[in-house]
Amino acid sequence: MPATSYPSKMGKRIPVWAFDLALAGALFAVSAFELVVVRPEGWQWALAINAVACALLAVRRRAPLVIGTAAPIVLLSTALVGEKVDDTSAPILILAVSIYTLARWRRDLRGLIGLAVIALGIFTGYRTSGPRVNDISDVFFVCALLIPPYVFGRVVRRLADQKALLEDREELVTREAVRAERDRIARELHDVIAHSVSAMVVQTAAAQDLVRTDPARAEGVLRDVADTGRRALAETGRLLHVIRDDGDELGLTPTPGLADLDALVAQFRDAGLDLELELDAELPSLPAGIDVSAYRIAEEALTNALRHGTGTVSLQVRSSGSGVAIRVTNPTADTRTSRGAGLGLRGMAERVSMLGGTLAHGTTDGRFELAATLPGDPS
């Protein structure tokens, strides 16, 4: 895919048309400066010829084969306006950019046709240049002018194609990782809703038994049923925003939550992670979907710390209003060796975004910090 812009030192993107226009202007400025300083016979005509060639290069990407061939042919006409004009050096830059265009902006090898036409034009000029004696050294000179820019253009073309392929693969991997995370969220919410509905059935049956013998107690049971139903509706709304994977419907493993953090911490300590846990004594009562998501975020953050961190890891889980705040910090190794694909962070961001929370992460003074907040309100 052709580039649409180029990065600048200020961090902004330069449109390709502006880049090509600036390049053509710079080439003309250099050639004009040489002609004005040297002032060979016919330099005014040569100035006009160079201007035409540079103007063609300003739109070189629209028809690279035509323009990459036409600009050098236009330059060769300077031999008609004066022998000394033909000896100026700046047009070699225009020639190099033209040949580079034939290689870089043509996907196939048809640029070789333009290269052959340019070589034929140059050798024809040598044959008609008057009493000058030509020998094999002229062949080497012309090859030195034509071949390196073309080879360089093909190399840049190949590197650009490989970069585009890698970016496409990275995007595909990222989409698959996000999809996998959404599928896992959906399965967990599915289990939460199924548990809520089962609880409602049991509570309703109990209320039916109590409605005649103990109306006050039956009223309390029905109030619990209503609360459970509202939470189940909220989790259903979240589930509708996630694409379901119809595989693995049973979900026989119990859904984890913050109550299982101690076991999770013990598991990571057994894996060799030096981990400190700071857990509020009393966390707010969280909807099941929020509870399992908080657990998963802590699990993923500790997994990243185990893979890429060094030293002691701190895990803090605190109440934040009616919700929960999770903060994980750890020293990091050299970023050149610890940099990962970032798929775990993308998965956490997907989960937090769906639940209406916030997620921030970054490295400061050699420590990586991840902070996530999840709301407790199921609405």
TrEMBL record:
Transmembrane regions listed in the UniProt entry: 42-58, 112-130, 136-153
Keywords: ATP-binding, Kinase, Membrane, Nucleotide-binding, Phosphoprotein, Transferase, Transmembrane, Transmembrane helix, Two-component regulatory system
Enzyme class: transferase
E.C. designation(s): 2.7.13.3
Record field: catalytic activity: ATP + protein L-histidine = ADP + protein N-phospho-L-histidine
GO molecular function, one term: kinase activity
Keyword Disulfide bond listed: no
Annotated InterPro entries: DUF7134, HATPase_C_sf, Sensor_HK_TwoCompSys, Sig_transdc_His_kin_sub3_dim/P
CDD domains in alphabetical order: HATPase_UhpB-NarQ-NarX-like (cd16917)
Domain Signal transduction histidine kinase subgroup 3 dimerisation and phosphoacceptor residues, every copy: 181-246
Residues annotated as domain DUF7134: 17-157
Pfam family for this entry, one: DUF7134
UniProt-recorded name of the protein: histidine kinase
